[in-house]
Amino acid sequence: MTSGLLWHSLPGTHDVSAAFAALYGDAPYALWWDDQGERGRGVSYLASGSPVMVDGSHWREALRAAHSELPSVDAAALGPLPLGLVLVLPYELGADTLGLTLPTDGRPSAPIALMVDRVVAIDHRSASATLYALGERWEGELVQWRDATAHCLATAPTLPDPELPQAPQILWRDSTKRYREIISGAKKAITEGEAYQLCVTTQLQVEADIDPIALHRVIRQSNPTHHQGVIRAGELSLVSASPETFLDVSSGGVVTTRPIKGTRPRGVTPEDDQRLADELRGSDKEQAENLMIVDLMRNDLSVVCDTGSVAVPELMVVESYTSVHQLVSTVTGQLRNDADLVDLIDSSFPAGSMTGAPKRRAVELLAGWERAPRGYYSGVWGVWRADGSATLAMTIRTAVITNRGLSIGVGGGITALSDPDSEIAEVGIKAMPFLRALGHEQVEYS
């Protein structure tokens, strides 16, 4: 047994949805993380968490202090387990990392941190469940949790199919006419040399009573990804089907970022699907967009990585997901011994794939055009584990749900070669998996 990590296998088979409902259906702070799809491990992680107060102006100190309170665990002990600090960082945290003033609507999104020290893992193929906990021995309260969890899972009732509102009204922040104007402004700024690439975004609102767990149950079946989950933090929930890795850090300090720039829909037939993938692979516009963000991320990592360690092992690879083809690159580096995840976030947040290049000027320009905060959209979510490793995904293809309804941010990268019609269609493509779950087959951005 690895020091600092306890595990206990349970008999029988277990349904993930029923297990979450039985264990954490009423928990005010909870995590359901699905690592699935073609690039996933085929495992779900279920947990409750304890909230950690994080002041946006002192987030560095707060995160480091909370992480220091985690039990000691051997290096590389946890693998992919989300045991540690589960984090949700809003885009506007970039105001601090970049030293800028960003727009706010009077309700600024605060960083979210949950302390998670025990988790239930359910394998999708075998339906077997394993309990994991930070600790040295099964004793005291840990034994009580283990036994109570085993009993709860053994008696969990079968759930009915999830129910969602069908075809609720969609309210776009920007009309397609207004979005065209923003694209035109972005292309003009690029032509005039203010930026090389700009990630223009908008948001949609659905004012309806939507159950985050029901939405996640639908999306995890229709659009599986390796960064998929629902995080419940009091009155706010995030439901994410993100395909993009912002930062992955091993316990030994190997950093990986995988920026996505370039999108095509999946084809109706195999021949059409291959045509669209080839079109993406051969697009001068998409290649230029991807390459600029790769260079930006190389620069961001070099600030906190060992000199000469930053590399690009994969450049502009087409990855295919349920609803889209994506153009993805991989940048790696070795984190310096005197740096940690907080330093890495400080040097690279917000992600270049959601801003553009050069980053600071891109963020300033985008704030002027978008005229509203992005909130949690374009930020990141994931875990800083007790063994020092971390996995953070981009908060894209994500619904933010409160008692006011649901919001989804969508957008795309603009270069000098961008076609406005294609950019508008891309917004619709990215929004459709969630909107189909709500009974919509076509939207204004189509």
Which SSEs are present, and which pair or pack?
Elements lengths: L4 E5 L6 H9 L4 E7 L7 E6 L1 E3 L6 H10 L15 E6 L4 H5 L13 E5 L1 E6 L5 E6 L6 H14 L15 E3 L3 H16 L5 E10 L5 H11 L4 E7 L2 E7 L2 E5 L4 E4 L2 E6 L4 H12 L2 H19 L8 E10 L3 E11 L6 H8 L7 E2 L1 H12 L9 E6 L4 E5 L3 E5 L2 E10 L5 H18 L9
Antiparallel strand pairs: 1-8, 2-3, 2-11, 3-7, 4-6, 5-6, 5-19, 7-8, 9-10, 10-18, 10-22, 11-12, 12-21, 13-14, 13-20, 14-17, 15-17, 16-17, 19-20, 21-22
Description:
The chain is of the alpha+beta class. The protein contains eleven helices and 22 strands. The chain has helices spanning 16-24, 59-68, 94-98, 141-154, 176-191, 212-222, 270-281, 284-302, 341-348, 359-370, 420-437; strands at residues 5-9, 29-35, 43-48, 50-52, 84-89, 112-116, 118-123, 129-134, 170-172, 197-206, 227-233, 236-242, 245-249, 254-257, 260-265, 311-320, 324-334, 356-357, 380-385, 390-394, 398-402, 405-414. Helix 5 packs across helix 11. The longest helix is centred in the middle third of the chain and has 19 residues, at 284-302. The radius of gyration is 21 Å and the shape is globular.
Largest sheet: 12 strands, antiparallel
Termini Cα gap: 54 Å
Percent strand: 25-35%
Q: For the CA atoms, what is the radius of gyration? A: 21 Å
Mean pLDDT metric: 94
List low-pLDDT spans: none
Q: How many helices does DSSP assign?
A: 11
By CATH reckoning, the class would read Alpha Beta
Based on Cα principal axes, name the global outline: globular
In CATH terms, the superfamily is: Anthranilate synthase
Q: How many strand elements?
A: 22
CATH topology value: Anthranilate synthase
Please indicate the count of domains. 1
CATH architecture: 4-Layer Sandwich
| Helix vs. strand class | alpha+beta
Query: Helical percent range?
Result: 25-40%
